[in-house]
Amino acid sequence: FRFASCPPLHRGSFAQMPSSEADTKQTESQILQDENKPIVATVDEKQDDRPFHRKVLGAPTDFSNWLGELGETYDQQFLIMLGTAQWGVKGFMYAYVLTSMEWVYRGLGVPGPSIQIYKAVALLPWTMKPLFGVLSDCYPIMGYKKSPYIVLTSLVSLGALIYLFVVNTGITATTACLFFCILQVSIVDLLTEAKYAERMRANPARGPDLITFVWGGITVGALLATATIGWVLEAGGSRLPFLIAIPFCVAVLVPTAMNYLGERKVTAEELRADRAKVLEQRELLILVVIMAVATLILVGLGMAKQGVRLNAFVAVCLGCVVIMAFTLLTRPEIGKMNAFYVIQTAMALQIDGATFYFFTDNAEQYPEGPHFSRWFYTSGTGMVAGVFNLLGMFFYYRYGKTWRYHPLIFATNMIWCVLNVGGVLVYTRYNLVLGIPDHAFVLTSVVLHSIVGQWLWLPGVVLISQLCPKGIEATMYALLAGCHNLGNTLAAYLGALMLKEMGITPDGSPNESHKFDNLWMAAAIQAIAPILTLAILPWMIPNALQTDRLLPPDENVSAVDGSPWQLMFGARPRADEEYGTFSDSETRRRNPHNADSD
After folding, report:
1. I want to staple 77 with a disulfide (CB 3.0 to 4.6 A). Which of 193, 260, 289, 554 is the partner?
2. How far apart are CA 357 and CA 105, in angstroms?
């Protein structure tokens, strides 16, 4: 079972991955494959033969030297900009806002199913990243594509944080303010990602160092937030985290105003060329518009408080529209993969709104409950999750990256199902009958879920990166990641509907033990539902190695070549090769000589 209040390190989400990751991979592959240019080593790769204790003592100096060299390559001012944007906003501030959401709604007496709806609405800006990218490219403000958008959203977020700390009354206003806070994180993340992808293309030799600088800082910021949020919630209640988040929200304004982003004013000719390039990708532009409209409808409906049933029905309808649009307008490899992950993510029904009350209700509210403190529920489990997420990544890198997609996805989903079924023990309180304390049971579960969760998540990241055609990597990645986040929204809405229909509606009232009677059944359904999608796995995901090329190597390969839309209206057929085949038998049919070469 998942702890939705844990910061980003505990919740593997495509929203937290850089949309420019594919750009980075493209840049690296260009360096390795360009036969017309010699590869010149610009980074000192001398072996460090110092004893271990000298390495430890010399670490601060080494780190300082590394930062200095990185600053010489990419400019110290630009690193300061990335520090305030990625480390401060995406690392620390996002963790504080995300972790505080449930506690804010608890203070407003919101039932568990409704908490899931409002949280999903607040997190919808992650789904809108493709729209933000198109707007910033096509509609610069005063000639600048990025800085004005960062300033405007940061100022709006500042007002929202002040409201959440000072006023914090009214469910609709609170949800709107949380939405604006996440909006700042999403836009700052997107626009600074685009800028450092551009810098890496100009200086690719230091690209991995820059990625390490960015994501290392995000990790440190999130861990610092995780370690402190529990104490803050216990000492100052659910409002204090928003006050602490304000300096991180404001800090990004200073380097942005001083143009540490290194942005220059766009000329009229350049703007016309950029708009023409966007219009050339008609199908992708249509997908951006569909995603934006679907998101805005969900936001409006969630704010209007129309009830769990109506929200779930509309969310499912919009999800079907998005899946059909991607399947119709993109090449089959991309459309099928996207449909599979959206469906499977949506089937992972969320019950976090109810489990939040289950674990945090006090003795008066739920006498038989675990009665976890705010510190343990947030900082305690969050720190353990952060550490074992990293361990899960290491195990995946060491043992999982050589697997084919089918056995890896099947095995990890089955293990995940077994782990989730184990949650039934704590929801029936049978773990106490077995002599297993609640704290020990939950920490063990967090450890196992963190490790297995990385094995579930990382192959999907690799698959998305492999299916982003050259030249439109950022747009395609943002679209596919946005679809995954839409799947998370569907999971929250459908899970809320399940909780509502089963009478699992805790809200922190005294003596609400009866509201948890059916929670174990909801947990069992949550565990089993995702594995039902494994039945369509062979037709939706290629049974390839994670290192295989899934798209033709043609420089001009498009994300829409061979799409059902093109085929129906007489467009050119796609240049299909032995790439992206969806079964071993298909591979043998297309290329019998190389089918067993792996």
Report:
1. 260
2. 11
Q: Beta partners for 141?
A: 144
H or E stretch including 127?
none
Q: Is 144 helix (H, G, I), strand (E, B) or coil?
A: strand
Q: Find out whether 443 and 490 touch, Cβ atoms under 8 Å.
A: no
Cross-strand partners of 144: 141
CB 400 within 8 A of CB 458: yes
Split the chain (598 residues) into runs of 10 and give each run's mean pLDDT. 37 39 42 39 51 60 77 86 92 94 92 92 90 86 90 96 88 93 93 80 74 83 92 91 95 93 86 80 88 91 82 93 93 90 92 94 94 93 89 85 90 92 92 93 93 87 76 74 89 94 94 94 93 92 84 71 81 45 40 40
Tokens of 520: 């174990």
Q: What is the DSSP letter of 141?
A: B
Find all residues with CB under 8 Å of 379, minimum gap 6, and list them. Answer: 226, 227, 228, 229, 230, 231
Q: In the beta sheet, which residues pair with residue 545?
A: 404
Q: How far apart are CA 194 and CA 474, in angstroms?
A: 8
Separation between Cα atoms, residue 506 and residue 515, nearest integer Å: 6
- Three-state SS for 323-384 is HHHHHHHCCHHHHHHHHHHHHHHHHCCCCHHHHHHHHHCCCCCCCCCCCCCHHHHHHHHHHH
Go through the chain and tell me how many residues it has. 598
Q: 122, 175 in Cβ contact below 8 A?
A: yes
Return d(Cα 459, Cα 356) in angstroms, integer: 29
Q: Count of CB atoms within 10 A of residue 78's CB?
A: 21
Residue identified by tokens 């804010």 is 104
Q: What phi, psi does 368 have (nearest 5°)?
A: -90, 0
Residue 213, C-beta contacts closer than 8 angstroms, at least 6 positions apart: 67, 70, 79, 82
User: d(Cα 202, Cα 476) in Å, to the nearest integer?
Assistant: 22
Residues 6+ apart with CB under 8 A from 394: none
* Phi, psi angles (nearest 5°) of residue 570: 75, 20
* Residue 182, CA distances (Å) to 176, 179, 248, 290, 479 in order: 10, 5, 13, 21, 18
Question: H or E segment at 116?
Answer: helix 112-122
177: CB partners within 8 A, 6+ apart: 160, 161, 163, 164
DSSP string over 540-572:
HS---BTTS--S---TT--SSTT-HHHHHTTPP
Cβ pair 22, 476 in contact under 8 A: yes
Is residue 416 within 8 Å of residue 456, measured between CB atoms?
yes
Alpha-carbon separation of residue 205 from 42, 44, 63, 64, 200 (angstroms): 7, 11, 18, 19, 8
Q: Report CA dihedral (447, 463, 412, 406) to the nearest 10 degrees.
A: -170
Considering the entire predicted model, what is its pTM? Answer: 0.82
